[in-house]
Amino acid sequence: MKFYSTNNKDLRVDFKDAVFNSMPQDKGLYMPESIPVLDDKFLNNLDQYTLPEIAFHVAQNLLGDDIPAVDLKAIIHDAINFYAPIVELEKNVYVLELFHGPSLAFKDFGARFMSRVMSYFLKEGEKQLDVLVATSGDTGGAVALGFLGVPNTRVTILYPKGKVSHIQELQLTTNGQNIRALEIDGTFDDCQALVKQAFTDVELNESFRLTSANSINIARLIPQTFYYFNAYAQLLRKGVNKVVFCVPSGNFGNIGAGLLAWKMGLPVVHFVAATNANDTVPAFLKTGVYEPKPSVATLSNAMDVGNPSNWVRIADLFDQDVDTLKELITGYAYTDEETLQAIEQLSKNDNYVACPHTAIAWKALKEYRQQNSPEDTAGIFLSTAHPCKFPDVFKPEIAEKIDVPSQVAELEKKESHAVSLSTDFEEFKRYLLDNA
Ligand SMILES: *Cc1c(COP(=O)(O)O)cnc(C)c1O
């Protein structure tokens, strides 16, 4: 499969180049030159397949012969080694739990697959790959744990001091091996600015083979399609074959992958995009005007994105046809106050504790179902992170209901190490050069 840039469809690169470049020079995003529609035999019998089998079939159709079947299978079995169950909370309302991977967030799917694909394409004797990643919390943990121990790679994570939760910080700072954490005395935007400047710095690019591991990488998008097919497979086993997916959205990679799955033939009735106060897309779906805004800080901070990068991919999937897009996707946006109410209601009514991102998706699904009474249709909202990653959000009586996974206790026992730096680029650059 070749990949074009959303800014230039005449540009064509191999999968390997698309993965290592992350972004085309023209600042578009990579998209597959054609989107294969999966065969009916597979789609009608999804309930017969396991998650790794589904993942392999989907990936092979998307990638063609870029990675030979045996190697692709090995990559998938190594990367997607945890489960993604749907849990019925009330009749026809399901939560798709995507937080059973090592970093307890759905970003594990993308980060683990991408790290293994990168490692696969790195030839023996090639220069070590240096991944630079700025994180506001979840991305860094998934990337760190995705690359941990992957040969010929090294990850440097920049995170804002005092602005990530305790568990998130432990996930960034206790890895050792080929992972190092830099605690920046600034905001997430400062971290991102440092990383961006590093990519344009001549001396650093001469010294290191730098790559970013951000959410726009096509190798992060592809594995996120797997769990949509797999969720549908689980529904089929329960005798339901109509589904609405509701996705808590920030950069719109997650829902973008769902739409890609739909394009590949997954029979989804409707998508709901749920956001916090950063409502650029829900506003667009209402007014038809796409107006990016500066991001505002909320309780669901992994979705604090005012100008979602993956939106151009979604527009591209629909060939810029806004009418079709609006028929398939509805948007809802909620305030922090509504988010807290949603957490309470979900805890009270269904005895289920959801992280703030997930709670927004639950609320949006509820609202959608009230307005469109699809009785024979199941609604699945995606749970993007384990609630224990956001302890400060919950009242004590809700917090005490959270089952803290064993990985967390393990983290507490490990030694934590981070290097503290200011927001000064020269200081950051010196650190990188001195610690080559
Ligand atoms: C990254 C993240 C999101 C947003 O996903 P996008 O693909 O950027 O839309 C939602 N919830 C959590 C917990 C996240 O970490």
Structure description:
- By secondary structure, the protein is of the alpha/beta class.
- It has a domain of 219 residues: Rossmann fold (3-Layer(aba) Sandwich).
- The chain has 19 helices and 14 strands.
- Helix 3 crosses helix 4, helix 3 crosses helix 10 and helix 15 packs across helix 16.
- Bound molecules: pyridoxal-5'-phosphate.
- Pyridoxal-5'-phosphate binds next to helix 11.
| % residues in beta strands | 15-25%
- Chemical compounds bound to the protein: pyridoxal-5'-phosphate
The second-level CATH architecture of the domain at 54-102 and 220-301 and 312-399 is 3-Layer(aba) Sandwich
The secondary structure category is alpha/beta
Helical fraction equals 40-55%
Give a count of the beta strands, DSSP E runs of length 2 or more.
14
What is the overall pLDDT average? 94
CATH class of the domain at 54-102 and 220-301 and 312-399: Alpha Beta
Q: What strand order characterises the main sheet?
A: 4-5-13-10-11-12
- Which of globular, elongated, flat, extended, rod-shaped describes the shape? globular
Low-confidence sequence ranges: none
Number of helices: 19
Q: What is the rounded distance between the termini?
A: 35 Å
CATH fold category name of the domain at 54-102 and 220-301 and 312-399: Rossmann fold
Biggest sheet details: 6 strands, mixed
Radius of gyration from CA coordinates: 21 Å
Describe this protein with a few key phrases.
436 residues, alpha/beta, Rossmann fold, six-stranded mixed beta sheet, five-stranded parallel beta sheet, 17% strand, binds pyridoxal-5'-phosphate, pyridoxal phosphate, Threonine synthase, threonine biosynthesis
